[in-house]
Design a protein that fits this description.
Layout (H helix, E strand, L loop, with lengths): L6 H11 L1 H10 L4 H41 L7 H6 L9 H11 L3 H7 L2 H5 L7 H12 L9 H23 L9 H15 L1 H10 L2 H5 L5
Length: 221
């Protein structure tokens, strides 16, 4: 059952959350303050449910990529200058080569480097330039349960796009932003697919315990 609020509750909550933050929810509910607060609470609840799934997704992608890196570039791949040169140069502030160079310079082991690298770093391993060096030989090992109808290049390209969308969703959740206008059913499926490609059994387990599907049916309004 959606939460109920007194008039004083609404005043206090608006002071805590801020009027600008609630404006998005008021627009979505035609100015109904009570319904807007219910939508805010639902947004927070489904954000938590999705973030639970995102944790498994990020680790599935990351650990699959690490397995491929170790096979392609050795256990000390994080120190391999040849590997650094394979990383794409991007337009914008984030550069994968700078990310790993910074982490490798101050952390003693590959494991600690892995834990510190940004999610974006792993996304940018799934680019066409890495097919010959890594994915043509390692995709089947790192992601054995991927869609068999797809070529290596198609699978890698799909992963890059899906990780981009999951990363955007993750960042919105982390900053307490509204996600209610997204196709959250598609986000849920996208996360499950990425986990499934790493291990189908884990994907099936995650599908059985996730609560996003039930929450979608309980959206206020």
């Amino acid at each position: 059952m959606p939460p109920r609020f007194t008039a004083q509750d609404l005043l206090d909550l608006e002071a805590v959350l801020s009027t600008p933050r609630l404006a998005t929810y008021l627009r979505a509910t035609s100015g109904d303050r009570h319904l807007a607060m219910q939508l805010y609470c639902w947004n927070a609840e489904i954000s938590a449910a999705l973030y639970f799934m995102v944790q498994f997704c990020e680790l599935a992608v990351r650990n699959g990529a690490v397995e491929a890196l170790e096979r392609a570039f050795g256990e000390n791949w994080h120190l391999n200058r040849g590997f650094y040169r394979t990383l794409p140069r991007l337009h914008g502030r984030y550069q994968p080569s700078d990310d790993i160079a910074t982490c490798a310079s101050r952390l003693p082991t590959a494991g600690k480097v892995v834990a510190e690298l940004k999610f974006a770093f792993w996304q940018y391993l799934f680019v066409k330039g890495q097919d010959e060096r890594m994915w043509n030989t390692q995709m089947a090992i790192a992601f054995p349960d991927r869609d068999p109808r797809l070529s290596v290049g198609q699978a890698r390209s799909r992963m890059h796009g899906d990780i981009e969308k999951v990363r955007f969703l993750r960042n919105r959740i982390a900053h307490h932003e509204p996600i209610f206008s997204r196709r959250l059913d598609e986000d849920c499926d996208r996360i499950l697919n990425l986990v499934t490609w790493r291990r189908a059994g884990t994907g099936a387990w995650l599908a059985s315990v996730q609560t996003v599907t039930q929450l979608l049916d309980r959206r206020p309004g």
